[in-house]
Amino acid sequence: MLKQEKGSSPQRGKPGSQSATGKQGGKGVATGNDTNQNGVFQYALIRLSVAILLFFCGKFMRLKTFYALKQLLNQSRPKGWTKKRFSFLSYVKRILSKTLAFPFTFWDVYEGSKKTGVLFDMNRIDDYQMQNFGYMLMSMPLASHVITAVIKPPRSYADKAIIARSITVACSGNIRIPIPALTITAYLLALDDLDAAILACKTRTLGTVPIRNADWIIVYNNLKAMMAVAQAGANSDQSQAIAIIESGLFKVKMVSGHGKRLFTAVNGADAGTANLSASGAPSTGMHQWQQSLDGIIYKELQDTRLSKTTVIGLIPVSKVWFRHRIVDGNVFGAWEYYYLVVTG
Q1: What is the pTM assigned to this prediction?
Q2: What whole-number distance in Å separates Cα of residue 198 and Cα of residue 212?
Q3: Among 95, 112, 177, 284, which one has the highest count of C-beta atoms within 10 angstroms of its own C-beta?
């Protein structure tokens, strides 16, 4: 019998080896003889080039071009590289999973931190975990003004009146949006005036349009006053914020928390005081502040040049509406509303 040359006989059972029939002993792994090192290097360069191209030009790339690049990668893959087809998103996901490690559950750490009174407890997580935890905190939205109630009235005044009445009725007797019954009654009367003004406009009588527009401004301000109550409830209970806002038929908007400074009112250091702050005004403008105990009748506060002021003489454990606008000469800005529960 003739002896086979050394290395010509396949090694049975080893991954990637081939038998005399040409079948591959391993699964998805090529042998050293089959692996084309030049092809692997070329495929790696193509893959890197496509990744760079997608990073800089992917936003302006047509869908056909993207699929063409994906097909190029699939066709240029060396034999035995992998049986899985290429997916750029899965490729990025694998890189991130290998780079960042989260060996703990975020919510477990958060709940445990609330019990101990400190969020960054180094007794539970080490330096490497703390770094990953910092990345998580940077990617999370801020709690303040993230879930925001908004009103999106339609263009038609008839539709505006319908939406406004629906919101007012939804807020009536709503335990999640506590508004006094007398306030709701006054808001409904303002809606009746708006409906009458809308009907009067259909007669095309001179002077009816300004009355309708003025009545809508009153109704719209009433809607914003009710929305301020819903927003106050949402701010105090973030877990139920969306449910609270939607119970009043308001829309929910998610914001980043990095926009312009909003109009806010917080309890002061002394009992019965509140600190109001708003966005800046033009150099010739003034800040106009008002307060109300029922959301109907507002009391004028002292106008200021500064974008903040302090209110004193409030009754502890009472609920107060504040509103603010910028006045620049004869130009009056829109009212901003805030609802505050005064602490003792």
Answers
A1: 0.59
A2: 6
A3: 177
Give the start-to-end residue ranges of the domains of the chain.
37-98, 106-139, 147-252, 264-341
- Residue 334 near residue 224, CB atoms below 8 Å: no
SS3 266: strand
**CA–CA separation, 136 and 96 (whole Å):** 13
Tokens standing for 187? Answer: 């808001």
Q: What is the CA radius of gyration of the chain?
A: 33
How far apart are alpha carbons 244 and 230 in whole angstroms? 6
Transcribe 303-344 into DSSP letters: -BSSSEEEE--PPTT-EEEEEEEEEETTEEPPPEEEEEE---
For 197-248, how does the pLDDT look when each residue is reduced to its tens digit (9 = 90+)?
999 999 999 999 999 999 999 999 999 999 999 999 999 988 899 999 999 9
Q: Which of 190, 194, 151 is nearest to 296 (CA)?
A: 190
Helix (H/G/I), strand (E/B), else coil: 211: helix
Answer for the pair 89, 48: CB distance below 8 angstroms, yes or no.
no
The 10s digit of each residue's pLDDT in 321-341 is: 999 999 998 899 999 999 999
